[in-house]
User: What shape does this take?
Amino acid sequence: MSKYLVNLKINNTPVSVEEGTTILQAARQINFRIPTLCDHPDLNVAGNCRVCVVEVKGGRLLAAACATPVSEGMEVFTNSEKVRTSRKHIIELLLSEHNADCTKCFKNGHCELQDLSSEYRVGDHVFLDLVKPKDKIQDISSPSIVKDDSKCVRCQRCVRTCTDLQAVSALAVINKGDHQKISTFMGKPMHDVVCTNCGQCINRCPTGALTERNYIEEVWDAIYNPNKFVVVETAPAVRVALAEDLGFDPGLRVTGKLVSALKKIGFNKVLDTDFTADLTIIEEGTELLTRLKRALVDKDEKVVLPMMTSCSPGWIKFQEHMFPGLLGNLSSCKSPQQMFGALAKTYYADKINIKAQDMIVVSIMPCTAKKFEAGRPEMRDSGYQDVDFVLTTRELAMMIKQAGIDFEKLEDEHYDSVLGESTGAAVIFGATGGVMEAALRTAYEIVTGREVPFTNLNINPVRGMEGVKEASIKIKNVKPEWSFLEGVDLNVAVAHGLANAKILMEKVHAGESNYHFIEIMGCPGGCLGGGGQPIPTTPEIRKKRAEAIYSEDEAMVLRKSHENPEVNGLYKEFLGEANSHKAHDLLHTHYKPRKRY
Amino acid sequence: MDKPIKKVDIIFEIGDDYNALDVLDKALARPADDIVLDLIDSGLKGRGGAGFLTGLKWKFTKNEDSDIKYVICNADEGEPGTFKDREILDRVPEKVFVGMAICGYVIGAREGYIYLRGEYNFLVKNLLNKLETFNKQLKERNLDFVIGIRSGSGAYVCGEESALFESMEGHRGEPRNKPPYPTVAGYNKKPTVINNVETLVYVAMITRLGVNRFKELGTKDSRGSKVFSVSGDTPIPGIYELELGMPLSQFVDEFADGDAKAVQVGGASGSCVPRKKFGDTIIGFEGIPTGGSMMIFNSSRSMYNVLHDYLEFFTEESCGQCTPCRVGCQQLLKGIEAVKRGEKPPAYLDELKKLTATMRIAAKCGLGQSVGNPFNSIIDNFREEIIY
Assistant: This one.
């Protein structure tokens, strides 16, 4: 259905836009900026903060620009006296309900309310302070997310994120009037509810009401402690986003500078989670092929298919809460972060002759759920907590600033060896579809002896930002030992963001899927859109980060996990073969059903 | 102007010849378009307070192209000081049903609902009994229309039509962004006529008595009569049906105790009229429109307490969704307390008046938009009572 054009004037400037366009969007098209707060490009329209009010000629009321569609002949004024006075009042009202102790706030300098109040010069506290003392008690029950109601401006972005984008609904609006607040089920602590720790709410919270539990001081303490050997690992999605928090445009790859900065900060060894991403592909790919063989050749009815990836801890917890009946579908592989921790404190510690108890493993992740994952009781296969501290991309940026490092001037440096070598296949773990693509590159080659039949190894059907992606690959001319796969159509699916995951899971649950392998990432766009990534994260920014990831992959010499020489060395020296007993001890785990409130 | 006050008795009148179903049959015998034209001609405006022309509302909904349409009777009467709909639903529910059925016939709806405020649940049993019979009678007339009841949970804001739809759909009772309006996308996002209880009764009465009888009553801008809930310092509190357009002075002469210093017209969200303005205040759309509440205060009342009570009410009953209303109400309440205690200077009241100007134009729905009515009228007319 073609849309007709609507003609209107904004601040006396004529503009023609498609019907259904909002005043806000129309104004942007001709470069009039209207301030917003409850609006977010990832979320449905709320129109509740009223910061974006504008005057429409002939209207008794001001209109919320974000929620009002344009109409023919409309005349809009975005800066009239009425508008400015009202907007200032609204910002003052928001501030009066807000704990404006900005200097102590983790979001200081990254707060949308702070920006608004500085733009409108509302520092003199016109109205009475309405912050309730009991709201100042932070909920720090979760290892991932801190909730501070005294900083909440009730814009409901978090609720819309949790409910619509992630289909989790851990957060909801409760009560009305002056008692209205954002709460969990029965006001239970964040750690005790259905929260997946994905951190998408943090990414969309305009203030410091929702922030990550930060472990910056703990990591500095470890670095300063002469008796500790501090190893750091960095996830693939960090290197394409970190720069945004240091003042650069989205989509800039800074891998070399990232390594260099970490060395300057004082980590003893700078290693790469990408190494264990490659390792994951070997373990997970082997697990998939084993399951397929048992299903197709042995006709073992106990084999559970489709197999689902297990790299994303937000997704894992979602599964544990929402679809406990499908836990058997999950790959038993730990995530790359946890494989790294387990190997660092065993294989690597041995190799460099450091006692495991003297080693601290820090990981830099685009993810807040990783903080929870690191603390899971299952993640102590080295005999100690495998990963000690998890920092988000944002926390690392803060450390780089604290250390006084001039990031722009840094020379590129290389990751240390071993556990530092990686391939392009590992890099694309950072984007939705990446694990699938990496797995297919390896599995197809193992089975057929040939590269995947896609130009330049790029498996385009699983790339891109569509919510649910599907692909089917015909396996032909297999090696003799894989003859049972000859002519099989390998059906795969990819979903990112938990609302999309839910769509797929309901299909699987209803027995309506013909998939063999499913990749799911808890966050929109995959790890590159993770809850620990620089704020803002928008569809546009996610696209740029994805482009950066794929260009990093193309720039690598090695682009298939099974070609990673250090990974192959690890098997030879330490693990034996994929899915070996030892590999299972260190690299695999199990999951448990959780309650749903 | 000095038209003598006229008590009328249309709504509660039950004559020997009266039969609700005769009224319905009379309507069903006519083309739907004629009924709409009559309604527009009658000048009937919504009795909930906003005063939109009822016939026009029906016409818009009738013209919408949709298989599914709804008729909703808004019985979420929650405005403090208003209790007329309760009486109507208790005493003459059939007249409400008939109004709804006529609407269903006119706009082409197959379902109608009475959204009854939670506090009126004691009426449900009786209403359901009567509805059982009435729905049967509709069927006998081959009118494909059924009326049901939905119970609210006691939130004032759910009287706001879009919040009411949200509540009926099982969501939090929060007003929606407008447009779209209910005539285009109301309950279940389908074209919906939502009328107040009293409005629907007047539709039935206009059908029965004819447009002219209705037009004889009231003024050019305020046609017809209206039911008022009279409370406060009056020896004769209760429900009265009065002609629209009367001066407040006559109302006070009739109902007050001789010592009235102020009348709050239109409930807590209406305006407070001081004694000196009784003479030139018209009760009607050309003067102070009202949903029907008239609260009379005599000299024994503290207007600070009156305003404080109103503000406490709004602070609690705001849905909390939009900033001007949620925080604005709190600031007004805390603000007059601070002035009373001397923590803010009297001039702070003027800052708060400026705030009500923002609330009036920037709040999302009628709740936040109307809090300025009682606030400004009481501050302006009884400033010394607020300060000292």
